[in-house]
Design brief:
The complex is a heterodimer of chains A (156) and B (717).
Chain A: H1 2-31, H2 36-65, H3 67-79, H4 82-91, H5 96-123, H6 128-155
Helix pairs in contact in A: 1-2, 1-3, 2-3, 2-4, 2-5, 2-6, 3-5, 5-6
Chain B: H1 5-26, H2 31-45, H3 57-82, H4 88-118, H5 123-142, H6 144-147, H7 149-155, H8 162-168, H9 171-179, H10 187-192, H11 205-224, H12 227-246, E1 252-258, E2 263-264, E3 269-278, E4 282-290, E5 293-301, E6 306-314, E7 318-325, E8 328-336, E9 338-339, E10 344-348, E11 361-364, E12 382-386, H13 395-406, E13 411-414, H14 425-428, E14 436-439, H15 445-454, H16 467-470, H17 475-497, H18 501-521, E15 525-534, E16 540-550, E17 555-560, E18 569-570, E19 577-582, E20 587-595, E21 600-610, E22 615-619, E23 625-629, E24 638-642, E25 645-649, E26 657-660, H19 671-679, E27 685-691, E28 702-711
Parallel strand pairs in B: 2-9, 10-11, 10-12, 12-13, 13-14, 15-28
Antiparallel strand pairs in B: 1-3, 3-6, 4-5, 4-7, 7-8, 15-16, 16-21, 17-20, 18-21, 19-20, 22-23, 23-26, 24-25, 24-27, 27-28
Classes of the chains: A mainly alpha (156), B alpha+beta (717).
Chain lengths: 156, 717
């Protein structure tokens, strides 16, 4: 069930990003302007959304259902965005190595993030307090990631 | 209830930190912005902190009211940490909307949970699915102004209410409306959503609360299996909506002002300014009708605010304007135009009209009466404007005026202070300035106008502008959209059959690889347009060609260069290209450019070719025109452009003639015919012929070529 939930959540996020990209690209094509910048923004947005989603999902899922449950939820969230990421890369000026590194980073995040939940489950008793702590930790990790990634994007 | 307190305090603490981070990043905040953040942070995070236990009333109360407590703590935190003051009244209203929103969301989660359990899911997975589904829907809806912004922008012309609908579907916009915060004009949203540039209405608070309460009640009834009560609710909502519609009979002020002080010429295009003011926000349809032709436009009116719209349309003695709402006519009025048989001269100067102007009928107008659409300049045959008045024109007027000048429209600028300074016009003026003059005094206008009228204005349009003949090429866009839809469908189907983690990774990976191969393997799709023009009696036609290649491949793309077409070059100086020169044929055979998906390469051509066709045209006594073949070979079938209309004719043998009735003229049916009309002076005639590019090797399958030949009463013009 966790895998399917991860697929559904990842698909929702990827669909929203793809809808934005296709709409913006169509405006650029009709207007005769360059669509490459929109594709670059799409790659970044897709990475950011999947990173935030993974950060929010993983600690709680792992705290309640164990590390494997967290992994089964988070890996599909990352993988389901690959078709959009591949096409957006083809439409962008982004470097291939950089795009691949971002995907590898996301996969690593999906593998590591459930460890936070697992650590909480080991130190606290199962119950509403532990779930709230795990969720709070996930939101705060996501907040930190957002600050870091948007800061990096502005800096580069 | 006690078990939920950790969740509420965790929500409050996390929301507080998130809100403070947002506030610190945003910089100085208005009270409305702080109020919005204090409400939005806990509202969006609340479903994550809902208790994972069976449905009870306590759980519902806690899920809906707990975030309000968190909101209060966040407001306090913002005040202490960043000194942002929160307005208590709007905060209370936002809290009310939050309770209604979260109640509806909670009931939706409970319904999904029950449904999944009935389908055989266990307690824990059903709860997880319901919570995450509702959270995902809430977040997707909240972000709708971002990700649906470009689509709303694309279709706003056909459906003016679409941007308002997209904004109205966002819970963030609901909280913003309650908090009195203009979210679309906020720094972050304005930079990231295209909705900020569109006309939108914020949802009204009573409507929002009613909708959320109705949704919560409907979901509760649905969950309890109370179909009859649900029907009663649906009928009540319908009755309330109909009552709202019935109130629509409030006054609507309509004013219609034709351009050029109501002057135009038969068959020309003019502009109509339609001013509307309604006492309530509503969407209306305005239909302008004249001589069987009509123009329909949909407008969204804001309560009490004037909506001013400039609509170009074909001139007729009477223009009827009808304003409709939901198909019912709300207002109607007629405007009368004066159609002049003589050429019109528009006089826009604070000096008395200094005529006579050799057959021109002068019309004195104020600068603010100048039209906002370039097409409306077809109503006049010459324009005299005082340069000192240019500063008083708005952006649209200036843009339309420059288009008129660029399109070789006869224009005389009266510039007493510095007659040689053409200012803005210098860069815009078309046809080598043959239709343009600057004079120092009004007294010189007549002689200058006579000189302009005597000049011929024939030059082919620049090659890049031929893109308007082709229109947009969306084939690659449609292919990518279909490809992504197929990928989504394959992932969903795969998930139905297996929940294996390996498959969840392998299937998207395979789809990504296949998608990439699909776009990389596709050859660029090219289109070619050649446009040639010849003046009256000229034996050589000048042509411009434009080849547009829509790329789908990332990397080097090779585009074959059609032979025969002369002087190939990239249309933009900054385009990097590698040309292949065929030494034997002594011509460029191909060009390589760096391509990418949705990219576009353009090649421009220019040259001349001899024309053996000869035709003359003269007026018949009854207002009709007679076209004769004055050459030694037959003329192929073509279209005569005359007086803003098009008259097709069959092949003409040498010395044969054909008579045209102006009443049977048709409108432009395509980009080429439209360009032919715009390139034909109003007091002249041209023939448009399609040319065969069959002999041009490597011409793409989608190729078109046209010859526009000006004709006169004799071959010498």
């Amino acid at each position: 069930m966790s895998t399917r939930l991860g697929l559904a959540l990842g698909l929702g996020a990827a669909t929203a990003v793809a809808a934005w990209w296709l709409g913006a690209s169509r405006i650029a094509i009709v207007g005769g302007t360059d669509a490459a910048n929109f594709a670059g923004d799409t790659l970044f947005a897709l990475m950011l959304v999947r990173a935030l989603l993974t950060a929010v999902l993983a600690p709680r899922a792992a705290a309640v259902g164990g590390y494997v449950a967290g992994l089964r939820l988070c890996l599909p969230v990352v993988s389901v965005g690959w078709p959009v990421a591949a096409l957006a890369w083809a439409a962008s000026n982004e470097d291939l190595v950089r795009a691949l590194a971002a995907e590898l980073g996301l996969l690593a995040g999906a593998v590591l993030a459930p460890l936070v939940g697992r650590a909480l489950a080991r130190t606290m008793k199962q119950g509403p307090a532990m779930e709230a702590m795990a969720t709070g930790a996930g939101v705060l990790i996501a907040c930190g990631l957002w600050l870091a990634l948007t800061g990096l994007a502005q800096g580069s | 209830m006690k078990s939920g307190l950790p969740s509420v305090f965790a929500l409050a603490a996390v929301s507080c930190i998130v809100a403070i981070v947002l506030a610190l990043r945003a910089g100085p905040m208005s009270p409305a912005a702080a109020t919005f953040i204090a409400a939005a942070a806990p509202a969006m995070l609340a479903p994550l902190f809902w208790l994972r236990e069976g449905y009870t009333r306590d759980r519902l109360l806690q899920s809906a009211l707990g975030p309000v407590l968190a909101m209060g703590i966040v407001a306090l935190g913002l005040r202490i940490a960043v000194g942002a003051s929160v307005a208590p009244g709007p905060l209370a209203l936002a809290g009310l909307v939050m309770v209604a929103m979260l109640t509806a969301a909670h009931q939706a989660a409970a319904l999904i949970e029950d449904t999944l359990r009935r389908l055989g899911a266990g307690d824990s997975p059903a709860r997880d699915w319901s919570y995450w589904a509702v959270t995902a829907m809430l977040w997707l809806a909240a972000a709708a102004p971002l990700w649906l912004g470009p689509l709303a922008d694309l279709f706003a012309g056909a459906r003016p209410r679409l941007p308002t609908f997209v904004l109205g579907s966002s819970p963030l916009a609901h909280l913003a409306a309650a908090a009195g915060y203009d979210i679309l004009r906020g720094q972050w949203f304005y930079a990231h959503s295209s909705l900020g540039a569109l006309q939108v209405d914020y949802p009204r608070l009573p409507l929002l609360l009613s909708a959320y309460i109705a949704a919560a009640v409907a979901l509760t009834l649905l969950r309890a299996g109370q179909a009859r009560l649900l029907g009663v609710l649906a009928v009540s909502v319908l009755a309330v909506s109909l009552a709202g519609t019935a109130q629509a009979a409030e006054p609507l002020d309509v004013e219609v002002i034709p351009a050029w002080d109501g002057w135009s010429r038969p068959g020309r295009v003019t502009e109509v300014e339609v001013r509307l003011r309604s006492q309530r926000s509503e969407a209306v349809e305005v239909v302008l009708a004249a001589d069987g032709a009509s123009v329909t436009t949909r407008l969204a009116l804001d309560a009490g605010q004037a909506s001013i719209n400039h609509v170009p349309m074909r001139a007729a003695e009477t223009i009827t304007t009808a304003v409709r709402r939901n198909g019912k006519e709300r207002a109607s009025l007629e405007s009368r135009l004066s159609l002049s048989e003589s050429p019109l001269l528009a006089w826009v100067a604070p000096l008395p009209v200094a005529g006579p102007f050799g057959g021109f009928h002068p019309v004195a107008i104020e600068p603010e009466q100048l039209p906002r659409t370039a097409a409306a300049y077809s109503s006049i045959d010459a324009l005299v404007i005082d340069r000192r008045l240019m500063a008083s024109l708005d952006q649209q007027q200036l843009s339309a005026l420059l288009s008129h000048v660029a399109g070789c429209g006869r224009t005389i600028v009266v510039s007493p202070a510095s007659p040689a300074d053409e200012g803005l016009f210098r860069a815009a003026v078309g046809c080598g300035g043959r239709g343009f003059a600057t004079v120092a005094s009004a007294g010189e206008v007549a002689s200058s106008l006579a000189a302009i009228v005597a000049r011929s204005t024939t030059t082919p349009p620049a090659a890049p502008s031929l893109a308007t003949v082709m229109g947009s090429d969306l084939r690659v866009w449609y292919a990518v959209t279909a490809l992504l839809a197929v990928c989504a469908a394959a992932i969903v189907i795969g998930a139905v059959f297996t929940s294996s983690l390996a498959a969840a990774i392998a299937v998207p990976a395979l789809l990504a690889t296949a998608s990439l191969w699909f776009v990389q393997a596709r050859a660029p799709e090219s289109r070619l347009t050649v446009w040639a023009e010849a003046g009256v009696g000229e034996r050589v036609a000048q042509y411009q060609g434009l080849l547009l290649a829509s790329e789908s491949r990332r990397g080097s793309v090779r585009i074959p260069v059609p032979d025969t077409l002369a002087r190939p070059q990239t249309c933009h100086d900054d385009d990097r290209a590698t040309w292949e020169w065929d030494a034997a044929a002594r011509r460029f055979s191909a060009v390589q450019v760096e391509g990418r998906l949705f990219g576009r390469a353009s090649l421009c051509f220019a040259g001349e070719f001899p024309v053996a066709r000869a035709a003359v045209i003269r007026l018949a006594g009854d207002g009709r025109m007679v076209l004769s073949n004055a050459g030694g070979s037959s003329l192929p079938p073509g279209v005569l452009a005359w007086h803003g209309g098009l008259l097709p004719f069959a092949a003409l043998q040498p010395a044969a003639r054909v008579t045209f009735d102006p009443g049977s003229a048709a409108r432009a049916a395509g980009g080429a015919q439209g360009l032919a009309l715009s390139r034909t002076p109003l007091d002249a005639q041209s023939i448009l012929w399609p040319l065969d590019l069959g002999r041009v090797q490597h011409a793409p399958a989608q190729s078109q070529a046209w010859l526009l030949m000006r004709i006169g009463p004799s071959e010498q013009g």
